[in-house]
## 1
Amino acid sequence: MKIGVLGTGMVGTAIATKLVSAGHEVRMGSRSRDNPKAKEWVEKAGRGASQGAFADAAAFGEIAFNCTAGAASLEVLQAAGAANLRGKILVDVANPLDFSRGMPPSLFAGNTDSLGERIQAAFPDAKVVKTLNTVNASVMIDPGRVRGDSDVFVCGNDAGAKAEVTRILTKDFGWKNVIDLGDITAARGTESYLLLWLRLWGALNTADLNIHVVH
Amino acid sequence: MKIGVLGTGMVGTAIATKLVSAGHEVRMGSRSRDNPKAKEWVEKAGRGASQGAFADAAAFGEIAFNCTAGAASLEVLQAAGAANLRGKILVDVANPLDFSRGMPPSLFAGNTDSLGERIQAAFPDAKVVKTLNTVNASVMIDPGRVRGDSDVFVCGNDAGAKAEVTRILTKDFGWKNVIDLGDITAARGTESYLLLWLRLWGALNTADLNIHVVH
């Protein structure tokens, strides 16, 4: 499958690398067409990897992953272009982190609104699926890094899009437990959870952590 | 130990009943001295159970549990009286739920502030420990209701108070895993988690649920 990955940071690099190793053709998108980090990634990732501007990556992909910082996501997606995202699955893994008050960060959305909802509202013709934002980049693509069963969540308004993303999560990323939380408003739940995640990180002294839901 | 339980709802009744059955003397506090639910509870709970106004319960207890609705908690604690809480452990199990926008509720604190912090700020001479607010009343006092290991959190500014509350959680309530998240500002994490908990409730169709942290 052809996949566009927007963002060249830890999350974008981890996801793009994993998708290439799973056999997908992946174009990493960044602000410019000659981003040094994107070029370095293409060289390392090898066959199936390419890079370009945000719009190039979005146009290339049958699916796009938003791996940008939450505060920049809407602007980046505008640069990627609504026409390039129309009818496609847009996997949103970003978090609405607000570092303006220092550490630990707070959130600029999550209670009565969420970044996932804002993206869906701004791009009504894309099928936004929120997922993976509850773990760090390492665990996203290697859930076995944490000991014992743990879970990842999906939410979004399109059932088919969630099913396709769930296939990628299980088949390509190795997730065994994918919990469907419902429509995109459930992003309020997974984004707000970050405030607990940050405290767990502090208490456990590792960011390689996750939760398993039991009932 | 003498314990005051503020609140006559499901949470207050569950906790007060469990504490009596564990051998503590428990006074349930409510707005009036002749609250029918409190009187009914005293009859059912039997030896060790008594009831009175909020101030009676707070004065009686060496420890107090805040089991009131989050929106009412500060007013109830004012009625209980700062002098009656001075130097004591105040276990806060309330959540800052805001039902004004309908269901699911949002939160009136949790991002850059928390109910736990507001209570600690309003009662600086009490030792506030936030705990148990991440599970429903049934699971609070019977963690075995969910299958498999799951965790409960404590946070607060007084290490001795957290140790004493942890003893009650493990010895009296049956919790095996108590995670100390740090000072009372960590209540932002456990309170914000409610927004995920509400979605899990919807997705799993049961409120008898919890999470286990793995790393």
## 2
Amino acid sequence: MYDLKALRLKNLQTAKEKVRESIGADNFIVNSINNIEELEKVINTLVGRLKEWYALYAPELQRSVEDNESYVKLVLTKQKKDILEHLRNNFSMGADLKEEDLKPILSMAATIRSLYEEMASLEVYLEKTMEKHCPNVFRLAGTLIGAKLLRGAGSLKKLSMLRASTIQLLGAEKALFRHIKTGAKSPKYGFILHHPLVQGVGSTNKGKSARILADKLFIAAKVDYFKGDFIADKLLKELEEKLK
Amino acid sequence: MYDLKALRLKNLQTAKEKVRESIGADNFIVNSINNIEELEKVINTLVGRLKEWYALYAPELQRSVEDNESYVKLVLTKQKKDILEHLRNNFSMGADLKEEDLKPILSMAATIRSLYEEMASLEVYLEKTMEKHCPNVFRLAGTLIGAKLLRGAGSLKKLSMLRASTIQLLGAEKALFRHIKTGAKSPKYGFILHHPLVQGVGSTNKGKSARILADKLFIAAKVDYFKGDFIADKLLKELEEKLK
């Protein structure tokens, strides 16, 4: 007679081992890019709040700084009088806050700065992981676009099995289904729209660049998945030739 | 002949001074409560991400901790083997992550912890500001509900001019307008629903408690705005008498 209980335990153990073994670089990459995107959103929301709050103290700063990160930095590093002097403003509409009322605002700004640092270090980690896991895709697409493509496909394995035309449209699913359903214009590019080689060309050539880039990524993903050589520089050169 | 340019400058100066003088405790309170609510949302989102990520390492932890804050604390303070031992689990489905892959996860957890600290210190600041600005409303309603009422009205001045029935329904605007438009049930309470004296009673008496509490808040807001004495303890006693 079989020992069913022991057999069951053995099965459970094997299943758990399989789950454990399935965890790898793909998971780290997808989680990192998810977190980077989330942090970006969170930071934007909190900077909005900070601006509203700091405006009680020095509303003049708001209009003079466009970039959120420099705004936070200025709030943390400059005194109000330096800011006003720099803006050539000799009368601020902001109140003279007491130490105790200014402190929570500055503490908020410091928190946001630490979120920026967190995001930056996460990007470094993502870059390293991508470079090891899929060097060719990484070199061709860059960190963020590469990671988004990989997430869009599901894993490097799945990415390596996609057609070039699918890679070209990853990230444009909404527009694609709108095209299929309503006959609207078909999309020409997804995530790779933000690639310098696609962004850099005039709007009539964007579709063409996207197609050629997707062709090369199609090769790169296969080479990466089957642990081939580093051929990205060669691919990049061919790519640039074709785009001339 | 008038010096129009000088007159214009003088006018501008006066206007700016008026703007500056209008900034006060009301603004600090509204900004603090807005930020606390925002931080709460942000933390919840990031904890969700952290859980997904940490599950690669120790998925067993997820189900055993209900509260987000203790989850983050456990991730930061306990080793994986301690966690498994505590859960009486001798085989984890999570992968054995390398130092370099675990580090960004822990760094994320540390960031979330600092957001919790930020929120806690902001609550302390809000409490202090409320206690100074409107001691009676603060004592009756508590920090968070008091601040929300003040924000709902716009300022302490405006709160002191509202009717008790309006105070009772602050925060239930959506339900109120639905009632007016479609004839749905009228709401019985807004922000004050979460007050212990309203939460603590059975559902048949909730409306009554809310009404009596709003009556007392109506008095408290007026006393606070006109810088009267501290009568909140007396009001609270009357309130508790009535609710018996």
